[in-house]
Structure formats: structure tokens, C-alpha cells
Design brief:
Length: about 170
């Protein structure tokens, strides 16, 4: 499942500036399959973030489509917009769905994907709140957290819906 994530040959990878299921492993500069790069990042303890365009997750709305990014070590996705069910499935996997503010895109913000990102999350979280993303360059930009309900926020705080349900069952 993880090996097939982002492996569609028709997927246009702006990071590579071509249609390819590959990426550049930033720690070594090597071009490789997304799966192999993700494995290396996990071994190095580097959490991953995806920069996406409009309607991220369109197509298959099955929960498997959200499990793949989770298994690759992706902790957050910043998108212009989300396919509704896919966004909900990302939340269920414990992946943070972040949305650019109106008018912002990766291009308009000058994001290349080569930066290091830190999502600045306050201790008190509320659904749909604004948070800042800080780059290693010192630049920050605001995004909206797309935990749309208190229940979705609870899933995230427990590490996903499975952990949430296990804890709820253990309480009873």
C-alpha cells in the first residue's frame, strides 16, 4: 500500500518539475522512488509534509488513500483545498490537514519543497483555527487547520481514530 502511494505515472510532481512518481532525497541529492525516499527519511527520523494544490485527495475516497501517506511518514499536508472524504480520512489517520488561506498557494508563497517546515501548534487547539508554518529560512505563513469538528480534533490528539477508539474502549 505505501509503495503505491504517489506512484501514479500521470502524477505531475512540481518538486521534480515533471510527470514522474519520483522525488529528490534532499539529504543525499539522489533521485529515487517516493517510497524509497520516504523509507530513508523515516530511518533518519525526518517527518514529512506534502505541499499540494486544489482538491487534494480527489479520485479514490477510500480510507486506503489516507493510510498510504501515513505509512510513508507524512505528518501534515498543506493544500489549497481537499476532497471532503479524503480530508476526513487523513484526520482519522492522524495526519494534519492544513489549508492555505484564500489566495495563497505554494507558488505565491515561493515554496519549493526544499525548505524545512515546522507547524507551530499552540497547546490549546480549536477546530479550524489558524496556525503558522515556519520555514528554515525564518519566513512564516498562516494556514487553517482543517480539523473541522471537536471530534476530529480529539482523533488527532489521540494519534488517529484507532488510538482514540482503543482508549475509549479501555476506559469502559
Amino acid at each position: 500500500m505505501a509503495r503505491g502511494t504517489f506512484a501514479n505515472i500521470r502524477l505531475f510532481n512540481k518538486f521534480m518539475n515533471k510527470q514522474a512518481p519520483q522525488t529528490i532525497h534532499l539529504l543525499t541529492g539522489e533521485t529515487m522512488d517516493v517510497f524509497e525516499a520516504a523509507e530513508r527519511y523515516q530511518q533518519a527520523g525526518v517527518p514529512l509534509l506534502v505541499l499540494a494544490g486544489k482538491e487534494y485527495g480527489s479520485g479514490s475516497s477510500r480510507d486506503w488513500a489516507a493510510k498510504g501517506p501515513f505509512l510513508l511518514g507524512i505528518k501534515a499536508v498543506v493544500a489549497e483545498s481537499y476532497e471532503r472524504i479524503h480530508r476526513s480520512n487523513l484526520v482519522g489517520m492522524g495526519v494534519i490537514p492544513l489549508e492555505y488561506l484564500a489566495g495563497d498557494t505554494a507558488d505565491s508563497l515561493g515554496l519549493t519543497g526544499r525548505e524545512r517546515y515546522t507547524v507551530l501548534m499552540p497547546e490549546q487547539l480549536t477546530p479550524r483555527m489558524l496556525v503558522d508554518v515556519k520555514l528554515d529560512t525564518g519566513k512564516t505563513f498562516p494556514v487553517r487547520m482543517r480539523f473541522d469538528t471537536d471530534v476530529e480534533l480529539a482523533y488527532f490528539l489521540h494519534g488517529g481514530i484507532l488510538n482514540y477508539m482503543i482508549r475509549k474502549m479501555a476506559e469502559n
